[in-house]
Amino acid sequence: MTNFEIIKKFSDNDAISEILTRALDNEPIGLQEGVSLLECSNLNLLGAAADELRKQSAGELVTFVVDRNINYTNICSSKCKFCAFFREPDSKDAYVLAIDEILAKIDEAVGLGATQILLQGGLNPDIPIDYYEEMLRQVKKRFNVQMHAFSPPEIVHISKLYGAGIRETISRLHEAGLDSIPGGGAEILDDRVRKSVSPNKIGWKQWQEVMLAAHSLGIPTTATMVFGHAETLEERVKHILRVREMQEKYNGFTAFIPWSFQSENTQLSGTSTGVDYLKMVAVSRILLNGHIKNIQASWVTQGLSVAQVALNYGANDLGGTMIEENVVRAAGVPFHSKSIDEFVHIATKMGRPVAKRDTLYNILERY
């Protein structure tokens, strides 16, 4: 089916059709056009265009990684309003994992086939600087795993402990064993929103500084977005376009991961639906076309069924099996790690090939 035929089949809006036709012709889509897409009620039209762009960019293959998400501390000075995970230092369930505990968790994960460890924690002022480097060194000494660790707010926090700049901090952590950086702490890359929901966290330009510094050093990262809380549609689009602009410098983002906000046990309310989520995935693919190949579907927040549908709305990756996850669980979302068989089943049921990958999207095994 040609681009024109795709639009013609689903379209009932000439203005939206014109935007999508340009997107399918690989023309970049701007801010107001992105807002118009989010305002569009024709989900099938957006999905059809995004699915075609997914085929052009990533092909038919559905991918996933076997991983474990380890949170080394839940003590955090940031106290974001959207977070149900953080604790005060004197809380009865506050913790800092000893390095031996982290090693034991990784040992268990590797035994279950994990190739990636997603390691993140709160901004804990009482953790000494040598904890981070020693922990990375110990992991690398014992295991052949990708340490996908320390979101930009953590990097900035650690840089203050070092008394060093962002680039030097990333270099030191990289030398100790840091392989790649997750895109956490992005939320919405707009300081109006950030001052409202996370006033003690870094601004969007510092998030950008960390990512560009990492990319300039050859260290890959992901980019995320948490939507459905205090942001406008324009601010959602602005977030994606800012990620797109960063990608144009070094091409360092391996994937874009939109998450719908989970409000239970937090100070904010959220109203995102499955339809909102699918629309956000589709528009992300349309806006990032030609810039970021991989769009992850979030089964953690949406469930496996919606994640499966998202594979027809621009997503090509299912993220990780997540042997462990704590942050979203704290926000009231029932959590059960997924098996390889579950991922393989939903992909093959759609008639799509499926493969296990590593953090950098190298294919490890096809099913």
Summarize the SSE layout with pairings.
Layout (H helix, E strand, L loop, with lengths): L2 H8 L3 H11 L6 H9 L3 H16 L3 E4 L1 E5 L27 H13 L4 E5 L8 H14 L3 E4 L2 H11 L3 H11 L14 H7 L6 H13 L4 E7 L5 H18 L2 E8 L13 H15 L5 E2 L3 H4 L1 H7 L6 E4 L6 H4 L9 H10 L4 E4 L5 E4 L1
Parallel strand pairs: 1-8, 1-9, 2-3, 3-4, 5-6, 6-7
Antiparallel strand pairs: 9-10
> Helical segment tally?
16
Shape: globular
Calculate the terminal CA-CA distance, rounded to whole Å. 28 Å
Q: Roughly what is the average pLDDT, rounded to an integer?
A: 89
Computed Rg = 20 Å
Helix proportion range: 40-55%
Helix/strand order, N-terminal first? HHHHEEHEHEHHHHEHEHEHHEHHEE
Short description:
The protein has helices spanning 3-10, 14-24, 31-39, 43-58, 99-111, 129-142, 152-162, 166-176, 191-197, 204-216, 233-250, 274-288, 299-302, 304-310, 327-330, 340-349, and strands at residues 62-65, 67-71, 116-120, 146-149, 221-227, 253-260, 294-295, 317-320, 354-357, 363-366. It has 367 residues and is of the alpha/beta class. The strands form 3 sheets. Strands 8-1-9-10 form a 4-stranded mixed sheet, with helices on one face. Strands 2-3-4 form a 3-stranded parallel sheet, covered by helices on one side.
Describe what this molecule looks like in 3D.
- By secondary structure, the protein is an alpha/beta fold.
- The protein has helices spanning 3-10, 14-24, 31-39, 43-58, 99-111, 129-142, 152-162, 166-176, 191-197, 204-216, 233-250, 274-288, 299-302, 304-310, 327-330, 340-349, and strands spanning 62-65, 67-71, 116-120, 146-149, 221-227, 253-260, 294-295, 317-320, 354-357, 363-366.
- The protein has a domain at 54-62 and 152-321 and 333-366: TIM Barrel (Alpha-Beta Barrel).
- It contains 16 helices and ten strands.
- The strands form three sheets. Strands 8-1-9-10 form a four-stranded mixed sheet, with helices on one face. The chain has a three-stranded parallel sheet with strand order 2-3-4, with helices on one face. Strands 5-6-7 form a three-stranded parallel sheet.
- α1 runs antiparallel to α2 and α10 (204-216) runs parallel beside α11.
- The longest helix has 18 residues, at 233-250.
